[in-house]
Amino acid sequence: MSRFGLNRRGFLGGLVTLAGSVLGKQRLFAAARPSTSKQGPGSGKITGFGESGDVYAELGLTTIINAHLTETVIGGSLMRPEAMAVMERAAKHFVVMMDLEAAVGRRISEMLKLPQGYGVIVTSGAASAIQNGYAGILTGNNATFITQIPDLTGMKSEVIIQRAHRSGWDHQIRTTGAKIIEVETVEDVRRAINERTAGMHFQNLSDPDGQIKRADWLKLAHEANLPAFLDAAADVPPKSRLWEYANMGFDLITFSGGKAIRGPQTTGLLIGRQEMVHNALLNMSPNEDTIGRPNKVGKEEMLGLLKALEVYLAEDQEVVDQAQSKQLETIAAKVSKIPGVTFTRNVSPIKNHFPSLQVHLDPARFSAKPRDIAAQLAARKPSIIVGGEESAIEMTAIDLQPGEENVVADALASALTAHSV
Ligand SMILES: *Cc1c(COP(=O)(O)O)cnc(C)c1O
Q: What is the pLDDT of residue 32?
């Protein structure tokens, strides 16, 4: 499960559901049928795309109520309106993109109160920050190396990672041409380090699973004079993590811009030592003949992330958490009357650290498993996405819009009632 970087407590159910019903092959290749409510050209009414206000319906698509998590496969998070307003202003002018990256990075560095010598760039997601961060580590600012990569002739070529920290995201490390060296123990690390070693990777959410913990990993890296990269993509809130890991001494750190920060979906932050961040930028868009040229970040997106981050940092996390808890309790209250339903409220410690609700079903009282209920909710219109695994239906309200908790509560109550025995 963690091999794919997904939340081990629940997303598979949702993903399977999506794969089966929403993202199924047939759907991908079948022509979407346009909504019949539209009137054709010449009717004098709606003629252009988007004019009905329901852009997804115009394309024949069903929108989703996201009662689960910020997941790229269903569009990530919903952007903050303040960010959208700034993006519209950003779209009205040309600007030198490298200067913009530098200026936005400086502004974000100040906002995050980073340690001396640290900087920031905006990348096209945390995945891009991983790829281009490592590209920068490998090439430095050597122009020949930058055009040569992923052919690593003349460069270092290995990245060390704990087995428990492997995930789909290390594809982004391999893209640079680097070879992943798997370790488990401190002994293994000492044995693995050699003149080809370029860096040591730590997937923050996997901290409890690996034998070597965060601080010890960092120490091992620095003892060997190697950079340590921390992938903390989905690990805010709390917002203090945005500066905590830099202050600990991690050399490069990434966070997604399109998860809880609610900036553009296509953004991420690469935070780290100024020189390394700069070398990462040399390896990516807008620079041509680079490995990261496809990882373009638009001027609108850079400024959208900057604004979203400003709003996120000013937010009172306790107020936000309370509002989310209240939505989840509305759902719990509605289904608590159904015999055989019990609840837990386990907040996952690192990734997706916000209020959550697990609805457990007594197998003697229900003819369906949590994942069947999840599939049923996903199949309705609008689709409701919840996590569904063997033991519980899993929900959070991080992406639930005001009022949607009532829709979820009603739909869940009727699905459960229908399967009561
Ligand atoms: C989401 C995520 C990523 C990728 O982030 P994007 O911003 O979508 O590119 C990388 N690593 C982990 C652990 C994640 O949760």
A: 47
d(CA 62, CA 35): 11
Q: Is the CB of 234 under 6 A from ligand 1?
A: yes
Give residue 259 CA to ligand 1 midpoint distance, Å. Answer: 9
Residue of 205, 351, 266 lying closest to 75 (CA atoms): 266
190 CA distance to ligand 1 middle (Å): 29
Which residues face 151 on adjacent strands?
A: none
* Distances from the Cα of 377 to the Cα of 68, 107, 408, 415, angstroms: 12, 43, 9, 8
Report the separation in Å between the CA atom of 257 and the middle of ligand 1, taken as the mean of its atom positions.
9
- Is residue 109 in some structural domain? yes
Residues of the chain with pLDDT under 70: 1-46
CA of 233 to the centre of ligand 1 (A): 5
Q: Is the CB of 126 within 6 Å of ligand 1?
A: yes
The verdict on the CB of residue 125 being under 6 Å from ligand 1 is yes
Give CA–CA dist 347/70, Å, rounded. Answer: 15
Site to probe by mutation for ligand 1, drawn from 256, 266, 269, 398 as the one with most ligand atoms within 8 Å of Cβ, is 256
Query: Atom 2 of ligand 1 has which residue's CA nearest to it?
Result: 233
Shared domain for 333 and 201, answered yes or no, is: no
Measured between alpha carbons, how far is 121 from 103 in angstroms, rounded to an integer? 9
Tell me the pLDDT of the chain averaged across its residues: 91
How buried is residue 136: exposed, middle or buried, by Cβ count under 10 Å (0-12/13-18/19+)? buried
R_g over Cα of the chain: 23
**What's the angle, vertex CA 152, arms to CA 147 and CA 153, rounded to 5?**
100
CA dihedral of 73, 235, 107, 110, whole degrees rounded to 10: 180
- Ligand 1 atom nearest the C-alpha of 5 is 13
**Rounded to the nearest whole angstrom, what is the distance from the C-alpha of residue 359 to the centroid of ligand 1?**
27
Which of 246, 281, 314 delimits the end of a domain?
A: 314
Shortest-distance Cα residue to atom 14 of ligand 1 = 233
pLDDT of residue 43: 54
Residues 100 and 228 in one domain: yes
pLDDT at 46: 57
pLDDT single digits (tens) 314-328: 999 999 999 999 999
Report the number of distinct structural domains present in the chain: 2
